[in-house]
Batch of 2 targets.
Target 1
Amino acid sequence: MNMRLSYGMGFILLFIPCSLLVAFTHYPALKALLNSFWNNGSSFRPSRFVGLDNYETLLEDDKLMQVLINSFIYAIGTVPLAIALAIGMALLVNSKLPATGLMRLSFFLPTMLPMVAVANIWLFFYAPGIGLASQLLNAVGLPSINFLGSTDTSLVSMMVVAVWKEAGLFMIFYLAALQSIPTNLKDAARLEGAGSVRIFFTVVMPLLRPTTIFVAVNALINAFRLVDHIVVMTRGGPSNSSSLLLYYIYEVTFGFRDFAYGATLTVLMVVILGILAAFQFWVLDRKAHYQ
Amino acid sequence: MTGGLNRIAFTTLAFVLAAVWGLPFLYSIWTAFHPEKYSANFVWNAPLTLSNFAEAWQAAPFALYFLNTVILITTVLVANLILCTLVAYAFVRYRFRWAGFLFSLVMVQLLISPEILIVENYLTLSTIGLTDTIIGIALPYLTSAFGIFLLRQTFLTVPKSLDEAAQIEGAGAWRILWTVYVPLARPVYLAYGLVSISFHWNNFLWPLIVTNSPEVRPVTVGLSVFATVESGIEWSLVNAATLMTTAPLIIAFLIFQRQFVANFMRAGIK
């Protein structure tokens, strides 16, 4: 046990996996940083060192500003809503109501679907005129809304899709946490005369806290790195109203072929995720120890 | 009395939420199984049809896309299982200089995942000439920090006495890995496998960037191309294609529902 690792054995165990990891995680992250100090080369004009020029562009980029605001609203809007719904779903599915199996299926199914399929389903659901959303609005006498075609509603529509897709997954984690809560705690509270609502907020909620931190961190990171639905449904539009940071990176790099600015935006993305990680470390260290 | 009323309110709420949640999907099913003219038009006795599925299946090479996805997820899964096992074994069973530092380097991938490094990874792929290949899609995902972490946690719970007993019996490092550690981690391999398969079946942006030709497209990319270009936005076809491409996952889920949920829970908690 805990033997010294010989060079030969170490090489066999670690060389291939670690080289792959370095080649596709550490190297590209550092390469993005380096490339952000150079401009785009072409066949007749090699790229040259431009210092902080790309970062100046970044600071003056109004479109980026809007994209960051969108990303912020998207994260702040979807994460708490998905968590609240997930807790509600877990409570329902965990209760002794009839047909909980069917409910669990309904809540969890969107999680199983690829985001592209989810996007197609919602594209149709939102479609002006024939979509179910329009039809329901018309049925109650309201005018139909062009959900994806209007700058006022496109981002919110994307957020609804994200919550629909993710809440079911989080429900599973809460379900696991709920089932691990000892029933005698709730019985004791009930003997003391606490009602269901009180028991939920004073007994159950505190015990769900580690799960909430875990889910929130994952949801937050996911809010930054899953943009498949933007690609399929709105392409960031109309006029960037639904564009998120990763989608903007994709658009700048592979749409406008501006790899240097794409690298600069990647650096920004890594910095934002780094801040989130530091925050996570700080919060987890303080609050989740009794797990 | 209020208890009864509460229960009724609670039940109603539950059913309403579950029904609302199911609506978009049910609407998609309705449209896929009915002729075009009933696609947004609810008549209880509208004729059912499978022709949308047949037409969508003919209109794009979905069989090929399925094959590509299967090749992709198999490659990634096999590589992950082998490589993550090796790394986790090294971290758990041996001590070596820089082990802690190396482990934190590995964990970096949990945060800075391949999804956000699309720009530079694409440049790397085009330098080595692997754009528009299935192996190119798979490369950034062949080692997984999540898998290493999960297996390391599991291997740590293997009793040292088992390992020592095997050594006394004269078993070498490989035999001990194969006969002691791997069997004890079987449920974790299953859980990791399910999570990995559903992640890579669903992955879209990176394959979209890497692939150009239908010969290497996975199902997700094929579906998006079909939905936006090839179908002429005929909704019944789009919905049929959407259901068709997700059917294997849904069927698998319905069959393995219990294990699936349990394994997702396990993978999340560890």
Target 2
Amino acid sequence: MKRLVGALIVVLMLANFSFAKEKVKITFWHAMGGSRTAFIQRMVEDFNYTHPNIEVKAEYKGSYRDTLNAAILAYKQGNAPNIVQIFEVGSQLALDSGIFLPFQDTVKPTDYAMLDDFISGIANYYRINGKFNSIPFNSSNPILYYNKTLFKKAGLDPNRPPKTFKEVMEACAKIKKAGVAPYGITWPLHGWFVEQWIAEQGALLANHKNGRAGRATDVYLNSKAMYRIMKWWRDLYKKGYYAYSGKPEDWDGANNLFVSGQAAMLITSTSDVTILQNAAYEHNFELGTGFLPVPDGIKRNGVVVGGASLWMTKGHSKAQNEAAKTFLLWFTNTENEVRWHKGTGYFPVRKSAVDVLEVEHWFDKHPAYRAAFDQLLQTKSNYATRGALLGIFPELRNIVTDAVQKIFDGKPIKTVLNEADKRADAALKKYNRSVR
Amino acid sequence: MEKREVFKNSYLAFILAFPTLIILLLFLYYPTFKTFILSFYQVGFLGLSKIFVGIENYITLFTDPNYQQIFYNTFIFVVSNVGLSLGLGLLLAVLANTKVKGWRIYRLLLIWPYALPPAVAGVIFLFMFNTQVGIINYFLGHFIGIKPDWLSNPILAMFVIILASVWKNIGYNVVFYLAALQNLPGDVLEAAEIDGASCWQKFWHITFPLLSPMTLFLLIMDTIAAFFDCFAFVDILTKGGPAGSTTLLIYSIYRDGFEYFKTGMAAAQSVILFIIVVILTILQLRLSKNWVSYSR
């Protein structure tokens, strides 16, 4: 009996002790699948180990869209995750939903957040109305990948990738003529590339300075910039230079066409550098990278940052918000940014991280990453490259891919673009009504 | 036979049915009711904001050419899907019913596709019909010298979707037809044979009418399946493209609801789908009195 009482006392004391040291629990929902899930998990474990009073739990929630949907639904039910990863074009949607806490409001001078350390192109995107509503995390933009081995065989200079629309067309003609590949170039049929080409031309996608000076009310889908892109794309398709995998948003399909040697060039995200480099090694060809080709006679403005940022949700205790912020600042610090870049191919969002990589001669050892960096660092800062803020991006992208497919089908470009523009404006009008 | 009541009073029956009723209410009737209500709203952010818009969603559905195309696509898909599944299902079942060598293997192989998850079947078709590297185009290019853009041509894309879903569903029809064929009264067929009826006559005047209850059942099941089970094929093969020419109603509901945050529009389409399926089922049951014979 005595022993039992003694044991009980010990148990109670232990329980009491552990209550006293209760950890702050933080949930973090992200959309990084495959090997990236494990990578994030390892980083989170490191954080938990070095921060004994905080426990972060990372959960993979599927695609960006699924993650955002799940977060909104969880918020409605009163158990939102503390941190959510949201894709860049979901920024306006996230802002309008009103369930997120502006990140910068939680930052105190003593946090050493180094908010001006973010690369300007990235900061320009995520700094909305003068402040960071979320913290930039993973970034990417489109570059040109090309098969140097096929270039050599076709008599093209393997160290000079085509830089403009016309040069791409000429390279394709040569590749086809030499018969080294059935197609010249491929990229996924996706609205993202169209948005990038609009920015490269210094043109806007929506009124009110891309929705940055005020809520956008008009989408510019029938602009001159759009026409240039569509005409070039249609010509590539009609001449049999552009390999189309057959369905929209088919990233893997485009990669496969390139890797299997069906097409000598590929335009896709910089986050695929690592994957494509391994694939090139396996398939015995040399991989080259270059800037995203732009229309001729136009000054290259640069690209809009893609990828995602991390948002904090409302409705949690002060202690939790503090812990979430601590985690976010740790997660995006210089050291972790370098690690994240090396592990995934997404480029680091901090200038200091780029400096570290330069010191390590990382780019000399891995030249394929060079184009991705230079393209972003040389991007001009203006409203075009800051990217549009629109709440209807998921639908807008579908309107654009529909238009491209109609153009492939032989319908006149101008008519198709006018139709698409009307559809997009109507969708935007309806969306704006719901946020008033 | 005298009529006998199972339960003395109706309370007991109600109590016994109560758990089922609760489940039906919670997971079926309440969501249905809620969908009807939501279809009169513009819902933002999966329900965080709501504006009453009356029948605006329905007006959009019936006037917007994009939605009209969706209804048209769905009509084409359902009619050809049901027609082909039933016709080919019956044909294959009749063939599988003959006692040739290895009949067990044939029957097993015919039922096999039904056991595949639609997503897997979709991926198989995606590989087969890939324009550049698919096996279909490899053979077509090799022997005939053509390589059609299966998934980027509006008509061919719809054809591939129909083919995939018929291929997938045919096993179900074969199983049920086979079971029905095995239960046919042998004496009637034998009598016909003695009277000198040809194979075709036997099939058309005896077998087919005797199968009519099964045909009705499969017609209803196939129609419902055609409306609801095509999602995976559209999502995996075409994503509703090219230019919306394979966007079917159920896919559009998903896209509006979960990708475009247009819950109200999705609800309105669900209501339309609900009404279409209810009307079709009632119609089929009513009309069936003219051609289905239940008694021998």
